[in-house]
Amino acid sequence: MRLIDIHSHVNFNVFREDSDEVMKRTMADNVGQILVGAQYDTSLRAVEFAEKYGDGVWAAVGLHPIHLDSFEVDDKEIAGDVKGFKTRPEEFDYKKYKELASHKKVVAIGECGLDYYRSDKKEIQHKVFREHVRLARDVKKPMIIHCRNAYDDLYQILKEEKGDEVGGTIHFFAGTWADAQKFLDLGFHLSFTGVITFADDYNESIINAPLDRIMVETDAPYVAPAAYRGKRNEPLYVEEITKKVAELRGISYEEVAKATTNNAIKLFSLD
Fold first, then answer.
1. Which residue, 9, 42, 240, 261, has most beta carbons within 10 Å?
2. Nearest 5°: CA angle at 168, between 269 and 117?
């Protein structure tokens, strides 16, 4: 594989009409991807897709913190033509998720984490995130972690729950370089999205993080890179993110592509 998009959601309903076409053109271009669940149904679909499409496609299963409550979500500022939606609250069923996480195509637990931007119900978020960390330790698989406006608490929980024993990546990293250093010291990776192609906020982390600890992702259908701004994102656009990382670090595209792909293979034990 020339690239691996370590976080996409082609298993979401927004791709319902053309998911097969998206998956096939991604695979035809030799781009691997990890399909990430946000609730049980999308986690199950990620596993089903990974089974269906085989080599170069894997799954991650978890309950996103925004699905612990019910409210309107409108991400027009980052999602292009992806419209807002109403969250469907779900209780975290450890047994069901553990059974799903034990599937051979599941390579990570997530996405899970903390989101203080959309919800102030910190207690339940902390409880469910701790359960995800324990699940990751139980099945011995790394984590794909969502964090928004909550890096200090996230770090503390990972320390208390021994998250360093499984490691993982801080998905869509949007913290400061000081935040980045704490997670890197804890043994975690950082992954970056298309937002880096039109915002400079994360340049310091991209430039200073060890090359063997960063990865690239689309978070499709969200956050399309600058070249596709305003359109639905898809896994093939991970190339634009790789180009931007290379530009910021002052090294070749080939070097970044090789490093980020190898990092993903190693962290997630991809076959």
1. 9
2. 145
Residue whose C-alpha is closest to residue 169's, from 29, 263, 51: 263
Query: pTM of the entire structure?
Result: 0.95
Overall number of domains in the chain: 1
Of 194, 213, 220, 223, nearest in space to 262 by CA: 213
Distance CA 180, CA 173 (A): 8
The token duo for 162 is: 């021994």
Integer Cα distance of 220 and 229 in angstroms? 12
pLDDT in tens, 111-142: 999 999 988 899 999 999 999 999 999 999 99
- State yes or no: cis peptide before 99, omega within 30 of 0: no
What is the percent of the chain with per-residue pLDDT over 90, rounded to a whole number? 90
Q: What is the CATH number of the domain that holds 82?
A: 3.20.20.140
The one-letter code for the residue type at 18 is D
* pLDDT, tens only, 62-96: 999 999 987 676 655 445 555 666 778 899 999 99
Full domain range(s) for residue 127? 3-268
